[in-house]
Fold each of these.
Amino acid sequence: MQDNAATTKKKWESYAEQVFKRSINLNTDTKPLQGTFEQQQRTEFAAAQYQKIGLNDDGSKPFLRNLAENKTWKNFSENVALPLIDGYLLLDGGESLMTFSKELASIYKAGRARKEIISTVERTLSSTASTVKQLDAEAMVGYRGSLATGVKYKTGAPFDHMDFDVDAFIVSDKLAKKFAGAGFRNGRRIGELRNISNSLEEVFKQFPGYRIDPKKPFTFRIFTTKEFEKIVKPNGFKTVN
């Protein structure tokens, strides 16, 4: 067991030395590292790079310098990102790191896409609130589903910006009384809401992942206050008014 441990330790040190030299172009007489980058060497390297950044022509700090001085980013990079990168490099020379980077980029892209979709959805839904308020001054407009929560209700999978719909709703006891029973109250059955729904769907179609189904066009589902408390509230939602 001791021999195996010593051999493993030696391999890690050797590979760490190669990675470190390749990263910051140290001379070949640098001593092997103990498993990963030593904090002092990391700090010295970071400081040297920091000095190279300089300032913009107008005297303002460039993006990278502002990032370097951000406490939240510094804590994240020193305690999470950099150690994680070190580990991947030591594991297999970077193959796992490349895979991880692609996955991270995909997650980041999806996150930005959801943020942009939410911004548009909330802006357009909010613009219709005044019309809804004319029908019921106490009405609340919002949306739910994976767009609101970030995860799909049935599977727990993350929001898919390339395949989604907008689950909008109106909470109104007054409007609910226009329907018989307690089933799915389709807002399109109310003339004013049908016109609004058509306009909103045209906006949502600008997103390539918006799900278009002629048989199920965009609409507002109408809930009573009690239904909202029981069905919508426990599972996550966002309001726009």
Amino acid sequence: MPELTIVVPCYNEVTVIAKTLSNIMDALAGRSLEAEVLVVDDCSTDNTAGVVAAYQNAHPDAMVKLHRNPVNRGSGYSYAAGAAFGTGRWCILVPGDNDLPADALSAIFNRLGSAEILLPYPRLEDFRERPLLRRVVSRAYNALICFAGGIRVRYVHSPPVYPREFIVSSKISPSGFGYFAELLCLAVRTGLTVAEFPVPALYGQQEGTSAFRLANLRSVAASIARIFMRRVLPRSHG
């Protein structure tokens, strides 16, 4: 049984998915860590699945598996589905768009098992290099989520490592833009131990101005409301 399940949700990532998988394999190289990589293709309209299949054929020793959603369901659903398909003790999401370089993944893997929740955050010098608007929106979203959830973490956009069974047993619906924040708040308030640490060149799954685009505002607002209600009415909201 693998120790780590790596879920890679992807949608129309034909140009970068092979690099994403290569980054994962580079970060795993030389370790005794046994890991499985579950690519969840969210009904891509391009040849993303074909590129993954070609990667599997070219790297038969890598534990790379492919699952295809019959309809497009979003990254939250794909992440939850990957966790359910997996068998590892721990689980992490790695976006299929090549957002996480190998050195960032390696820094995360180095901490595996040091706490029940691993929460990486970007180094200050890396964060300062981002556009001002992106930094402002990132901090505003972080503050909103922490206030609503009654938690204190540095960076809610990070790709956390959770116990896989926690994700599977969660009653949170894996839909909407704020699913990942809802899951994080629930995990922290459940009492799971947390380790926060800086990693190089970290980019967030929900960071940036996209969090406040018109198409996502309703979803974000609904998620923040649910997070707050779980805080004040935990028995009625799971």
Amino acid sequence: MTDAAGSSPGRGGAGRLVALLIAAVVVVTAFAAVGVAWISRLDATATRDRVVAQADAVPVLAASASPAPGATRTDATPAPGADPGRDGGGEGGAGARLGAAAAAIRIDPAWLAGTAAATGVPPVALDAYARATAVLATAEPGCHLGWNTLAGIGRAESAHGTIDGTSVAADGTVTPRIVGPALDGGVYGAIADTDGGAWDGDDRWDRAIGPLQFLPSTWRADGVDASGDGVADPQNLYDASVAAARYLCAPGADLRGGAAWERAIRSYNPADSYLDAVRGAATAYAAAAR
């Protein structure tokens, strides 16, 4: 009895020791997990801050009165249902002024050739992105939008207007037209028709349109004629690029900070995969152009 009684506390002490060791391992593992989580969060934040550094300003030559290469000027044609005081078809509207400025400027051809070769961005698309950011640098100097951000969006949306075999003419117009799937609540959220099918050919559901994939309602608000042909056309890279720059540089926007840049991209498309695609392309283009 004495031996049995004496051995019992020994076994209990060993059990308590094992329990304490297990508890210690659990605590250490928990702290390690928390540490990894914080490191991941810090790394993600640092990545955002690094990515948003925009490419150098584009070299602009003297303004010209001629439209974009290959464009033929006609009477200004606004988007269906457009607000004349806002979009590119409105005489004297902010969009019309931006479009006219973009159509008039010329980017240094040596810069275009060198940057297109270094980045792989097609020259017409690069010219459209560069003109758009040059115009917004004057109209909204506090926005700090870089051409590489627009190029990142163009790459993610339509491979700069070349998705599924489409091609881009010298005036920036894509052929055939780029029209996204019906926003009927299936794969994507439901958005009932807002343009009577005028832009997307669908009078029941809206579809994203053009190389930069605008919703018809957004194009109505921000679409401009930046090619100088008199038509605010979402299927034209010059028009779409200035419209996208205008959208991203909403009053008060400043894209220098990582969080602000991310919010601007998410306003265009909120998906994490989209943000990553634009961030990756924009970063690569800026690096290649240096």
Amino acid sequence: MQTIDPGAGAARRPPRLVKRRGVAAAAASDSIPAMSDVPSEPLSQAGLLAAVQGRASVRRFLAEPVPREDVTAMVELAVRAANAGNAQMWRFVAVDDAATQAAMRRAVDEAIDEMATWPELAGRGKDLQALRVYATFFVEAPLVMAVFGLPYVSRADEMLLAHGVGVADRDRLRARPDLQSIGAAVQLLCTAAHALGYGSCWMTAPVLAAPAIEELLGVRPPAKLVAVVPIGRPAAAVTPTSRRRAAEVLEFR
């Protein structure tokens, strides 16, 4: 499996922009394809409203493999996400090898086994078992996308650090733009998967085993695991859950 080289992409600043045919474009080493370059016809035909409203989390999958060209098409859409400083601090590792997926599950099991020894969790056996179920079902999917994040330090962060602002206060004032950016990419990844006829589920519970999974997948610091997304054809009909109406969550001032 290809090793992620975080040094090649971890940037404190946005990628250098160059002019090409009168349009600002990322330099060749950090190039992002235009929407017209995305090779998937089903994605180009998918309506935004249907793709967004029809998506739902899927936890049961058929064994049908996910073609790598479809995986590429999903990621091509994911990297169009809005992100802080255009730093594009996300990295993706698509795992379609069953043995590697099983090893990822063992890593999560071992992390939860360790938690079960904590005296503070005495008598929480049912909760731990429920956590195990919801943290390991990704292994049932034919494809598991591991999503990694690289550090992002903006000018505002540098100023706060120079003033001695602590991590907790800095996170309160900055609200983790790195994780916000990666979350935007994961949302687009899941939406693109749905538009292509796949199901997916945005998972963070497997991050309990982040150090072991990072080592297993050959990902070196400073990249860190932030999410796991199983992807495959749904084993049952996909039914979106209800959502609060805009009037319940929106205010005008």
